[in-house]
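Readers of this paper often ask what the protein records in our data store actually look like. Such a record has a labelled line for the sequence and another for the backbone structure tokens. The tokens are whole numbers drawn from a learned vocabulary of local backbone shapes. We quote a single record here, exactly as it is kept in our systems:
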Amino acid sequence: MIQVLIILGAISFCAPFIIWMVVRFLDKQRQRPMYYKKQIIGFSFLVCFLLMILFLGLSIALSL
């Protein structure tokens, strides 16, 4: 169980960077700026880092 939470924490750490790369790729394909991309990237970083803290905190709490 603890290993699963650590893996989920690692995935949630990497997820916003993948979302950021996808948004940049889509922006370059359209050749025009996406005005809402800053909100998407900021929100995804916030949510994923909060999930990472939650998963890693749960894994630490369960290991004690």
In short: The longest helix spans residues 2-30. The mean pLDDT is 84. The two ends are 13 Å apart (CA to CA). The chain has one domain: 2-63.
